[in-house]
Structures are given as C-alpha cells and as structure tokens.
Amino acid sequence: MRKKLLGVLCVTVVALSTSVQAIEFAKPSLDTLKQVAQPVAAPARQGESEIKFNPSGTIGHINSKLYTIDTQVQAAYDSLFSALLSKEDYNKYKAELKTIQENKSLSETEKRAKLAEVATDTSAILANQEKQTEIYDNLKALSEAKKTEYVNALVNLTNASYQYAELAQECQSLSMSIASNPLQAASLALELGQVKDTAALLKANLKSIKNVSTQVIAINKANGIDVKLPENKAGKAKKVDF
Asked: pLDDT tens, 126-167?
C-alpha cells in the first residue's frame, strides 16, 4: 500500500507541473526593453552560501539535482520579491527564511519544504489589491539591470518547473523499481522512505512555483509587461517587452 501511495504522489507531482504554462500578454504601457532573456540564475546574495551535497545511491543522485534546482529557485524568488514587495514585507520574508535555515532540529528536506511554504505564503501579498499601487511604483523604479534580473527570475521558475517534473518521473521510476523487487523490500525500506520524502518536496516546490508565477504573471498583465515564457524544458524566452 505504501508503495502504491508513493506512486500516486509521484503522478500527482508530474500533473501539477503542467499547470505552469507559457503565457503571452498585451504590449506594455511602461518603457520598453526588448531583449532575449536567458535562464541565468541570479547570483547568491552576500552572506549566503550554497550547501554542497554528496550523492549516495540513486535517490542521492535525484536529491543532489533537486537541491541544485531548488537553490536556483530560491534565488529567483529573492529577485522577484525584492523587486515587487515593500521593504518591510521583503525584510519579513527574509527573516522567515533565516529562521528556518538556522533551525537545527529540521532536516535539509524539511527546511526546503518550509522555504517553499514561505514563498507560497508571501506570494499572497502580491495579490493584495491594496498593494497594487505600491507594486506598480516599485516596477517603475527598477533599473535596467533589475528589469533583466526580474524577467530572468520568472523564466528560471518556468524552466525549474520542467526540471522538477523530470525528477518526479525519476522518483516514480525508482519507486516502481523497488516495488518490482519484493525479495529486496526489507533492504530497500530506507530508500523507499527517502523517495517518498523527495516526492513530497517536489510537490511542495511545484505548488510554490505555481503560486508565485501566477501572481507575478497577473502583475505583469496589469502593468502591460509582456514576457513570453519557455514552452518546454529546452526552451528560452523569445522576447521581453518591459
């Protein structure tokens, strides 16, 4: 039963990933910046360091790739929230992240799941009607460099959703492989538990990307910003009107 439920969870993760779609909006009302947006991860903020992971076995390899993608996603969130949120709301977001990262009682997977939850909760601020004028003013004040960072962050989230979907497929294949070897079930029990945790984290991450992307895309549309997002894992943004 546990293996069956894990398979269902992996399928759910794959299905959730398809909700991040390529969207094209009307021409902009702000000053126009036309360029080709490359999915380049934003550089790490001063004082932050990337955690190194040593792959151990099949699930270790999946987790290593997951954590690398997740680090890029967190950088994209930081770029988007720093551009759109008030200084007070942005500082609150950063403080919540720091509290989680410094919590030694949490495993790495638990920390990353909670970081995704904070991003999801923070995205709700972007939907607050009382914040829209402030958000509009923040967008108008962006430098050209910040505009490029903002657009690339949204492109990176879209690309990450496709990469997460691939990892979900790998989790599903691994769980099915374990299920097809009943004689080794006992020795693979720990591996199965790790796959379950990874699949749950993928689901949380995809939910977070969906919520953040939906709110940012709505803001872009309201402010006449046109961003053509990648339509598949190999795609890149074709044009940006900002």
From this structure: 999 999 999 999 999 999 999 999 999 999 999 999 999 889
Retrieve residue 179's tokens.
Answer: 């299920």
Q: In angstroms, how far apart are the furthest CA atoms of the chain?
A: 65
Q: How far apart are CA 200 and CA 212, in angstroms?
A: 19
Is the distance from CB of 224 to CB of 27 less than 8 angstroms?
yes
**Half-sphere exposure (CA, 13 Å, Cβ side) for 91?**
3
CA angle 24, 76, 145 (to 5 degrees): 80
Token duo for residue 202: 């993928």
Answer yes or no: is pLDDT of 95 > 70.
yes
Distance CA 26, CA 94 (A): 33
Sign of CA dihedral 204, 209, 212, 217: negative
Q: Specify whether the CB–CB gap between 160 and 209 falls below 8 A.
A: yes
What pTM does this model have? 0.74
Q: Look-up: residue for tokens 């299920």?
A: 179
Q: Say which amino acid occupies 170.
A: E
